[in-house]
Each structure stands twice: as C-alpha cells, then as structure tokens.
C-alpha cells in the first residue's frame, strides 16, 4: 500500500510538472489576439496587421483595436488577460515607458504586469504644420510661437504618447508656450490639423509622411538623432537649432506576466521571421519604420533604460497629469 501511494504521488507530481510544458508545446490552441492600443491607421496598427497577415502559427491572428487613455485601456486589457500567449499587445513607447511618469494613477504596472517578447520597430516623429501657418523651418516656428504666446495648439493621439511628449519637450527646449490638444487617436487629430483647428503636430512618421507628400500638411522637421532614409530632405529638429533634441517612438510585443517562456520564445521567433521578410522590410522602410528586433531579455533592458530616460523628460517638461 505504501509503495502504491508513493507511486501515485510520484505520477501526480510528474503530470503536474508536464502540464505547463504540454500547454506551451500546444500553443496556439485557439486564435491569437494582438491588442492595438490606438485606432486603425497608425504605426502600431500597421505593424500588428503585418504580423496578422504573415503569421504561420496554425491559428488565425486577430487584430483588436482598443484605444483610449493614451493607450492605457488596451494595455490594461492585456495585463489582466490569461498568461497563455493567446492575448498579446503591440506596446508603444507611451504604454510601456512614458505613461508611468505622465499619469499619477496607472491601471497596470509597465514592468511587473508584462512579459517582454520582442522589440519590433522604431520611428522618429515628424513635426508637421497646417499649410496656412507661415513657418517652414524650426526657427520660423519658434519665432512665430514667441510672437504669439499660447496662440498655437499642437495635437496628439492622447496624453502620454510620444507625439504628446515630443511637443512638451519642444516647448521646454525652445522656451515657447503652446497648448496641447489630446485626441482619442491620430485619425481624429489629422482632420483638425488640415482644417486649421490645431496648427501643428509631432506625429509618427508612418502616419504623417504620406500626408505631407500629398501636400495636405507641411513637414518641417523630424525628431530623430539623424535623418530617416524615408525622408532624407527633411532636417532633424536638432540640426535646425535645438541641439540635443531627440524623441523616437518604438513598438514592441508584450505578453501578460507569467506567460510560459516557451510560448514567449515562440512568439518572438515568429516576429523575427515576419519582420525580416523582404516584402515586409521594404514596406517598413517606405513608411520610415526601422526594424529593431530583439530577444525578450534585450527588450527588458531597453524598456528599463527608456523608462528612466522619459521620466527625466516628463519631469523637466512638466507634462505630468494628476
């Protein structure tokens, strides 16, 4: 009897240990959902839909747009989802490094509630203005803003986004006064920019560049440390009179904390395969998106550095929301 009980306990322990491994090996056992924390049309949405279109996982990959609160609503949904790899988020520099400093109360912890999967891409923001605004350079904009304090408004797809903080950083470094107007997404801000209800925006390049090329808005400068190959004729803010100015957006996949490492590694491997495809790389290049694929461990280190960097920017710019 003792031997029987011992054997039964040993078998039970073996099955308990094998269950998570079997679950990881079976992933995905149902459709995988990528939550995008902003409306359709922006860089996070484009990247998520490329993953959805090219994925070869044996199950469909569904893109689910959950915008609001600077991306916090969608990110929080994933933070509280089952840690089985079937719900992941296309995180942004805002949702996973800036918002913790901007918002006094966060519904989730940017680090503890997520398992890093892989960096995907980065992009500079593009300083674009309404065509009727009499400025063509950064120095023109600074002079115009100083001559008209608090009369210029800049839009963003939400508080805490890189688009918002880029504007706050510009205000701080240039010593100008402008009013921030947050929208529920860039698709709502752009019509107002074209119509003149707001005068400028530091939009993600993949969203703003096509509009500038069509002549609907005017590109003044880009916010990266160097010019993007997608817009070689557009100078950086730094080279236009504000040395040291840099505000780059990045996008990365995160799973809920506690997701098995085997599953995280499988998602990361699929991301590596998809975003290295020639047709995908070509599309990203045209949009001004620079692939920066990484391991989960490298993403964790990068995120930690970005949280520290943006905390300092937010403190200096006074962009915090109570």
TrEMBL record:
It comes from the Bacteria. It holds the Pfam family TctC. The keyword Repressor does not apply. The keyword Signal applies. InterPro entries: BUG, Bug_dom1. Residues 1-18 form the signal peptide. Keywords: Signal. Belongs to the UPF0065 (bug) family. This is Tripartite tricarboxylate transporter substrate binding protein. It comes from Zeimonas arvi. The lineage of its organism: Bacteria, Pseudomonadati, Pseudomonadota, Betaproteobacteria, Burkholderiales.
